[in-house]
Amino acid sequence: MKNRYIFLAMFVSSLFGALLAGAIILSYIEPLVQPSDIQATTISERQNQISLTNNFDSSVLIPEGVNFIGAARKVTTGVVHIRSSYSSAGYSINPLDGFFQNQSQSSGSGVVVSSDGYIATNNHVIEDANRIEVVLNDNRSFQAKLIGTDPTTDLALLKIDATDLHYIEYGNSDLTAPGQWVLAIGNPFDLNSTVTAGIVSAKARNIGILRDRNNLQIESFIQTDAAVNPGNSGGALVNLNGELIGINTAIATPTGTYAGYSFAVPVTLVKKVIDDLVEFGEVQRGLLGIRIGDVNAQLAEAQDLNVVSGVFVSSVNSNSSAEEAGIRQGDVIVAIDNMPVHNVSELQEFVARNRPGDEVNVTFVRDNLESTVLAVLRNTEGSTKMVRRRFSNEIAGARIENLTMNELGQLDVENGVRLIDIQKGKWNDANIKEGFVITKIDKINISSVEDLHLTLQNKKGGILVEGVLPSGKKKVYGVDW
Fold this sequence. Notes:
single chain; alpha+beta; Thrombin, subunit H; Pdz3 Domain; 4 domains; 12 helices
């Protein structure tokens, strides 16, 4: 038996170090008090006395670098359950009917990224949904407003009317490396707040799941072996400091369930997309304006290149950022802003973190010589200007106007927009009269014309409209949208 302990200590020491080996050896030491010495009338008392006498904590067996408890506890409350509803059915203003009938639902996850209710998730979690419900870790439920989406990265941003929420702090996905421990948190199969662990398996993975008509999709996923299943989409991938390093998005599987690998959008890209959606309502894409492909041994031989890694420029668009900077067909891009570029996925990610008008340093190889040029990125229209989403003050046959604080006070409401000049259309069909102030749509607070547009953008079928008449009387309408 003594030899067994010595062998075990040597084996563990080779894995975790001499300190951990000593801890494990201690766990095998004979108890200070033998069970025969314990006087107890119940099994519970007997176990309690032994536990108190031999106060061994199994946590000492876990090296600090792989203790997941702290990170899991820190981030679990910042991950939410998202239920997306799809329905073309009618509505009922009878509260016993639950307002809406015949809805189908899908389930996913989301990450609270600010204390005032902004939630990041995947576009495919909420795509085409009529209604989006967010359930917090403490079981509070909210109807969410869709702020914006970016199908090219499969990201979306929601907003709920809540404050003082626990949010997950951003980490730096550039600092992650294969072999690093990570945790995935989400709601697979409707199992709330599920935590799984794994390591980063690879970075900048392109698995060919996103499509865009302008070929602007970006797949530069963090690959992990943390178990992710249907329902995890939109949830958090965090490091052991409890910092967000990615949004779990996809799995590689022949069966539809986890088969070994999962993929997350890196947080450096997530941050940029979210900031764009908050500030402009849509993503601002800065482009070099080139057609590209991965460099490999075959291409290097065919093109007589002296590099076998990087991004080969097959063509340069006219009047593009790249043309202006002097990049030519046949160049091999090897770095963006001094960050090495090994493939197309990395190049797309590094460039996509920038907006039109931003400057990036592009390092490339031409005729076996390395050069660096400064490129000013442009948008799809060839401009360096930002494009802000605009909202009309006309919706479905009526004009909409915002209310002043004084007008809200006179009606004794905290928020709302007024319908004026109602013509033929959905509002008129529902018998809503001019001057009606909309305060809620499907239980979502409406504070501005922009709010109304965002809330109605994906609605289909019946919607529930709450508000007040000019007289101050509250009124509820069902509108066929």
